[in-house]
Write a structure and sequence with these properties.
Layout: H1 3-8, H2 13-24, H3 32-39, H4 44-52, H5 56-73, H6 80-107, H7 110-121, H8 123-126, H9 130-141, E1 151-152, E2 157-158, E3 162-166, E4 177-181, E5 192-193, E6 197-201, E7 207-214, E8 222-231, E9 249-255, E10 263-268, E11 274-283, E12 289-294, E13 301-302, E14 308-314, E15 325-328, E16 334-336, E17 342-346, E18 354-360, E19 367-372, E20 377-381, E21 393-402, E22 408-413, E23 421-428
Helix pairs in contact: 2-3, 4-6, 4-7, 5-6, 6-7, 6-9, 7-9
């Protein structure tokens, strides 16, 4: 940025250099963030532009640096393009954007709040990563809210850890609500209450979130506190040691946790016939798969009558979508959903197993789901056409009837991609 533009923004060269140092520092141990905060509201226009991302010129400079770094590594499993474009440049841009959001929160004021809201409204067009969306959401949620006067056990919190929230001189009355802003399922907190504390399970990837506690002392007042989730550690269950699940149950999974670990198993063994509905919801563009198997000494055997494939297509609000096209992936076989969003056709496979279907409708992305032949009425959700990996959400529902005394396994799967997928699994018995 030129000196003329700096002057137009109301910043001195030294102040602009302070913002630049904060956006680009590696360890940030010399008070870079505090210096930006001390500039105050005059820094907001420059920081708001930084929230969009680095300039093309800055990215070119960083690319040259990364190319030199790559050459110094010698033998590596990644190609230069993989190292620079797929990893390091993406991390550089995301860090730049997150620091801009943090500084807007530090500075405060109406202009900073509007800049964050504009970023959330245009997150898809800007192509924000999931972790960037999480930080912007958390910072925006804290505007105008007092800091929590109680205590949050927030040291070393990991995915699925229990977090305790203790009152700060104001008694609980049982009506408090807790929201983890920036998390994949911000309002999906299982809250337990005691006389002097609340507790909930932390669900989110590694990062900084903002905890909002509403109703403490006043039905409408909200207090906020930062919460750091330091790591995601989740051990999936193999079929042989699948835990027994009794509906209703709500679980959160993180798959895969390592390369190739893309499935999780849960056991159902009811004393009487049990109708089970399994629902998985996940951020992203590709839905997890659900499949049912009979457990026994001979290994896993798919269950259900072969040859049929059917279900219901809904939109992002859960309303049945008529006129959507459902086509078996890789074939010309397809149908159009009726007025209730239903589809049904004979599977090209004579046996049981998972069949890929592509679902499309005007204004929505073409999404692929894997359905199990014979499972009954599957339910899948359309994904809006402007969704990205950071903003999209998928839904997959499978309903079966487990005979009395039999042992069935539910397999939840995601395609291996290296990144952790956080999934909400709900099991009910209508």
């Amino acid at each position: 940025m030129s000196i003329v533009l700096i002057t137009a923004c109301g910043l001195t060269p030294e102040e602009y250099e302070a913002i630049d140092a904060w956006l680009h520092c590696t360890e940030c141990i010399d008070g870079e963030r505090a210096r930006v905060d001390s500039i105050g509201e005059r820094a907001v226009p420059t920081i708001a532009r930084a929230l969009i991302g680095p300039s093309d010129g800055r990215i070119r400079i960083m690319r040259q640096k990364l190319e030199a770094d790559y050459q110094s590594f010698g033998n590596t499993a990644l190609t230069a393009d993989q190292y620079i474009d797929s990893v390091m440049l993406r991390n550089f841009v995301a860090t730049y954007q997150k620091r801009a959001a943090i500084s807007l929160g530090d500075v405060g004021g109406d202009r900073a709040q509007r800049a964050l809201q504009a970023a959330l409204d245009s997150g898809t067009q800007r192509g924000y990563r999931t972790d960037v969306i999480a930080v912007i959401t958390a910072v925006h949620a804290g505007f105008g809210k007092p800091e929590f006067t109680g205590v949050v056990s927030a040291i070393g919190v990991r995915f699925n850890d229990t977090v305790k929230v203790r009152e700060g001189g104001q008694a609980w009355d049982g009506d408090e609500t807790v929201v983890l802003n920036g998390a994949p399922f911000p309002r999906d907190l299982v809250v337990n209450r005691w006389e002097d504390s609340l507790s909930f399970v932390a669900v989110g990837g590694a990062g900084t979130y903002l905890l909002s506690i509403t109703g403490l002392g006043s039905p409408t007042d909200t207090q906020v506190a930062p919460l750091d989730i330091v790591s995601v550690r989740y051990e999936a269950h193999p079929a042989a040691t699948a835990p027994l699940v009794t509906p209703p149950a709500s679980l959160h999974l993180a798959l895969p946790t390592r390369p190739g670990d893309s499935t999780d198993y849960f056991k159902f063994q009811p004393p009487a016939q049990l109708n089970v509905t399994a629902t998985v919801e996940s951020p992203g563009l590709e839905a997890p798969s659900l499949a049912w198997f009979e457990c026994g000494p001979q290994g896993l055997a798919p269950v259900g009558p072969p040859g049929t494939l059917g279900g219901v297509v809904v939109n992002e609000t859960g309303t049945p979508a008529s006129g959507a096209e459902v086509r078996i992936a890789g074939t010309a076989v397809g149908v159009v959903t009726d007025g209730l969003g239903r589809f049904s056709f004979v599977s090209p496979s004579s046996g049981l197993g998972l069949v890929g279907v592509r679902v499309s409708s005007l204004g929505y992305r073409t999404s692929e789901y894997r359905l199990q032949v014979g499972e009954g009425a599957a339910r899948v959700a359309l994904v809006p056409g402007n969704a990205t990996e950071a903003t999209g959400r998928t839904l997959r529902v499978s309903g079966v009837s487990v005979p009395a005394g039999e042992c069935w396994l539910l397999q939840v799967g995601v395609r291996s991609g290296g990144a952790v997928r956080i999934i909400r699994l709900q099991v009910t018995s209508p």
